[in-house]
Amino acid sequence: MPSPARQGSRLRAAVVGTGAIVTGSHLPALTSLRDRVELVAAVDVDRGRLDGFRAQAADAGFADVSVHTDLTAMLEEARPDLVLIGTPPMFHREQTVAALKSGAWVLCEKPLTLSLAEYDEIAAAEEASGAYASVVFQHRYGSGAVHARSLLTEGALGRPLVAHCQTTWYRNAAYYEVPWRGKWASEGGGPVMGHGIHQYDLMLHLLGEWTEIRAMAARLVHDTESEDVSTALVRFKDGALGTVVNSVLSPDETSRIRIDCEKATVELTHLYGHGNDDWRYTPAPGSEPPPAPTADVPSSHTAQLTALLDAYDTGTRPPGSGQSARSTLEFATALYKSAFTGNTVTAGEIGPGDTFYAAMHGDHPDWSPKQ
């Protein structure tokens, strides 16, 4: 149920991390929804960055933001209802568990954790606290994705048959000079975890459960612990087959999903966010084109935060949390296991005792961090 601290007023929110993702995405989302949420606190280890963020928040209409360099102290003093986390991935599990234990709900940047083992720690903290943790998968939200999922789940497009999921981006050597990037212990992986995860999460959201995956991965350009490109073949529970490509080696950047169904092909082509105009439907011969969505809401942090606030108001599990989010992380884990072992991996096979349950590299001799 919603925290008693709210008592019918605006929900009290805090941000952890005040870098580009928070200033560029979370703060605008909070500002757009300030009739429902109030930003009361911010945490960062950099005091200068904190002071700059506090000024930005004041300009956005949040005049009384307290600033902290310690998360525990902030949780005790500010008592937020919601904590938005935008720190590097290596801190997500610890910060999410701390916020949950305080009774706050969490909206955390992807990946929520660096392994399935860490994710299950968060699930246990949820159960103990009664609060919920959601991961930022903003591409699920917005009218285009909502409409496509409705058409697919209702059968309006016929049975899905073939899917393609493409995240082909470009990152140069300077990008990986940031110390935590490209390392298993701090980022959790390469483009599978840090880039393509948004696109294949949306594919899974649209098509439902997957059953098996066969994959390959490589380091072709960058001097990193993790991969810089991967490919995968996927079988879904309903029989559909799909391909997934995650790359940071592609000068012509695009993000794309295509699903061929019995009655139509649905395609989404964009880069970092989509609106209705980025979706295209091509009916099969003899079939009528599907109806268009009635609204045009872009995918964004604002759209996801709106859905979370709606769930908070009703005391129900928010979207992008629980088993729904775990399935996407399991998909990433299975992709790595298949790529590194050369074996087909089935849904549900990776659990405690499997080396890939504890770390995405699975202690594989060719991929685990060098001692």
Structural class: alpha/beta
Give the C-level CATH assignment of the largest domain: Alpha Beta
The CATH level-2 architecture of the largest domain is identified as 2-Layer Sandwich
Write down how many β-strands occur, each being a DSSP E stretch of 2 or more residues: 14
Enumerate how many helices there are, as a single number.
12
Q: What share of residues are in beta strands? A: 15-25%
* Run of helices and strands: EHEHEHEHEHEHEHHHEEEEEEHHEH
Helical content class: 25-40%
Strand order of the largest sheet: 13-12-11-7-10-9-8-14
CATH topology of the largest domain: Dihydrodipicolinate Reductase, domain 2
Largest sheet: 8 strands, mixed
Radius of gyration, whole Å: 20 Å
The termini sit apart by 46 Å
Shape: globular
Detail the poorly predicted runs. 1-7
Total individual domains: 2
CATH superfamily of the largest domain: Dihydrodipicolinate Reductase, domain 2
* Rounded average pLDDT: 96
Domain Gfo/Idh/MocA-like oxidoreductase N-terminal: 11-135
Protein name: Gfo/Idh/MocA family oxidoreductase
Domain GFO/IDH/MocA-like oxidoreductase: 147-267
Region (Disordered): 279-300
Please describe what this structure looks like:
With 371 residues, the chain is of the alpha/beta class. The chain has 2 domains: 125 residues, Rossmann fold (3-Layer(aba) Sandwich), CATH 3.40.50.720; 195 residues, Dihydrodipicolinate Reductase, domain 2. The chain contains 12 helices and 14 strands. The strands form 2 sheets. The chain has an 8-stranded mixed β-sheet. A 6-stranded parallel β-sheet has the order 3-2-1-4-5-6, with helices on both faces. Helix 4 packs parallel to helix 5 and helix 6 packs parallel to helix 9. The longest helix is centred in the last third of the chain and has 20 residues. The chain is globular and about 60 Å long. This is Gfo/Idh/MocA family oxidoreductase.
